[in-house]
Amino acid sequence: MPGIVIVGAQWGDEGKGKATDLLGSRIDYVVKFNGGNNAGHTVVIGDEKYALHLLPSGILTEGVTPVIGNGVVVDLEVLFDELDALIARGVDVSKLRVSANAHVITHYHRTLDKVTERFLGKRQIGTTGRGIGPAYADKINRVGIRIQDLYDENILRQKVEGALDVKNHQLVKIYNRRAIEADEIVDELLSYAERLRPMVADTALELHEALTDEKIVLFEGGQATMLDVDHGTYPFVTSSNATSGGAATGSGVAPNRIDRVIAIVKAYTTRVGAGPFPTELFDEWGDYLRETGFEFGTTTGRQRRVGWYDAPVARYASRINGVTDFVLTKLDVLDDLDTIPVCVAYDVDGVRFDEMPVNQSDFHHAKPIYEEFPGWKQDITGCRSFDDLPKNAQDYVLALEAMSGSRISAIGVGPGRDAIVVRHDLVD
Ligand code: GDP
Ligand code: IMO
Ligand code: MG
Asked: What pTM did the predictor assign?
């Protein structure tokens, strides 16, 4: 069972970092295949808390080879800051491999991300401001800079000058910003080249060989299904394919080498940034979930929007990703509730939708149809088997499983590394 993908089923922050870490000791490679330092994964190991943005969470496990795939956009300053911070805490990062085909995020991408958001005004996406969208736009426009370009100064200079041609007009004439000198960008990128050199690799080939040798490769998705540029709530999405298909294109590993797709889903829902969110709560229950679940962004510190579990979203994630197993996280956050509403379908202007509406306007108008489940009113953080869970908690999990399209194979009952109930092995 060598190729395993982990994706988010909702709008991000489902606890993917913790799930990757859980599998850590059994895997040989962990591959980040999409996104960049817009991701924020918190992993709690004993008393230590690690916040990772660009590096895959598997880097925390000894013996694992972490890989940054071609589908990632890499901010080199962030890469080295994150590596140095881990080295200072005694983590061995020497095995890191970075795809020669990954694109870089530069100063002009970060600047454009911020100014375009400001110009969008009320229509803004609420991006993380890390330059993600502009870097992917350059990739698709064929004016991006790849890691391998750092090793041919002439080519690098030509490409940076080409990219800045139009951008400087935009920055100066539209956004009233100063022009950016090509030299400034080239010098900055070259300053990282030598330290980066030993990590740069044909990662698609290395992963192919690893899979042929029956090594276990875990593909770790950033963001989530509903933030996927094709399948999410466009335009309120990130700029990459965060669904399981992205694991193939973003790593160069063929789809038929992927055997298992694990989706992480929270026992309720959160979202950061703008866009539709049918089960969103604006009342005291929203505050309650936000505070109990500590729903504040790992990357931007922003307060997360919160709402009840949305079964049509989970079913959609199951279908789009080909989910074989769900990991249901943060069940403990619901411990003190008397009843727990779950959205089972939507009402769109009087019409019932059991599946995600294909039209954006319908999804914006979707009103949740709720079913109520009795709470368990008991602390479950110490439970380590399904039988340990109170009957009402078991019933809640089984009800979600029945309506979400795939089996729930593990259940998170607390932030710590070992706070998990496993029902089905996630690797074999
Ligand atoms: P990611 O972006 O999907 O990796 O998720 P984040 O790290 O941004 O957010 C998930 C948060 O939930 C982190 O702070 C985790 O430590 C925490 N967490 C994960 N699983 C559980 C769980 O089962 N219970 C509780 N209470 N917290 C959890
Ligand atoms: P993890 O991996 C939650 C959201 C931003 C914004 C939209 C576009 O921790 O789950 P971008 O900067 O990517 O262009 O922003 O996507 N977003 C996330 N929300 N978790 C994330 O990552 C996110 N990465 C991006 O808030 O709405
Ligand atoms: Mg996160």
From this structure: 0.97
Gap between the Cα atoms of 360 and 379, Å rounded: 40
Q: Tell which CATH classification among 3.30.460.80, 3.90.170.10, 3.40.50.2000, 1.10.940.10 matches the domain 3-91+202-422.
A: 3.90.170.10
d(CA 314, CA 312): 5
Catalytic annotation, residues: 13, 41
CATH class of 103-198: mainly alpha
Instruction: Please tell me if the CB atom of residue 266 comes closer than 6 angstroms to any atom of ligand 1.
Output: no
Q: Distances from the Cα of 249 to the Cαs of 32, 141, 252, in angstroms? A: 12, 17, 5
Would you say the CB of residue 130 lies under 6 angstroms from ligand 2?
Answer: yes
Burial of 118 (0-12, 13-18, 19+ CB in 10 A): exposed
Q: Whose CA is nearest to atom 2 of ligand 1?
A: 13
279-318 pLDDT, tens digit per residue, is 999 999 999 999 999 999 877 888 999 999 999 999 999 9
